[in-house]
Amino acid sequence: MEIIDRTGLSQGLIFKGGTCASMLGYLDRFSVDLDFDVMANVNEAALRDEFCEVFDQLGLGITKEHEQFLFFQIRYPNDPGKRNTIKISANNLPVKANQYKAQYLSEIGPPDELPDHRDYVCE
User: Fold this and answer.
1) CATH of the domain at 26
2) Burial letters 62-82, b for 16+ CB under 10 A, else e
């Protein structure tokens, strides 16, 4: 939720992939990563800074970070022997086959309560 609370991230990224599909009820499995596409004309350095601020605010450690792409592997606290990392990536290369359609996630709230509907878009 911290990502959508940040204006730069919520308005500069399009949520997509398995986690998004699972939240929308399209998949019957749980996905364990967060995938985004970067919207056109968005400052990627600013996005990287905002991601890092969110991770720091939540006390999450970055275990891997790609210098040229928005890719992070984040470590979070968990019991020994249980999964404790998540991958977060934002693709900055347009994929012509992608078709975007606004979908509103009920976990966040109904569309009429959202300040800007573009903040909650899934592929």
Assistant:
1) 3.30.460
2) eeebeeeebebbbeeeeeeee
Per the CB < 8 A criterion, the answer to whether 108 and 52 are in contact is no
Contact yes or no for 110/1 (Cβ under 8 A): no
pLDDT per residue, tens digit, the chain (123 aa), is 677 788 888 888 888 887 777 777 777 777 788 888 898 899 999 999 999 999 999 999 999 999 888 999 999 999 999 999 999 999 988 777 777 776 666 655 544 444 444 444 444
């499995």: which residue's tokens?
29
Q: Give the chain's domain count.
A: 1
Residue 10 lies in domain? 2-120
What gap in Å lies between CA 5 and CA 80, rounded to an integer? 31
Is 57 strand, coil or helix?
helix
Cβ atoms of residues 14 and 37 within 8 Å = yes
Count of CA atoms in the C-beta half-sphere (13 A) of 21? 14
